[in-house]
Amino acid sequence: MTDIKGTAALTPGSTDSDALREAEAARLKALHDREFAEFAESSYYRVERILRATCRDRQAVDDALQEAYLHGRVEWPKLREHVKPAGWIISTARFKMLKDHDRRQREAAVAPEDLPPSSHSDIADVWEAQETLRGWLHQLPARHAEVFQMSREGFSNQEIASILGLTENSVRSYKTAAKKRLGELAEEAGFTRAERDRRQGAGRGPR
Question: Phi first, then psi: what are they for 12, rounded to 5°?
Answer without folding.
Answer: -65, -20
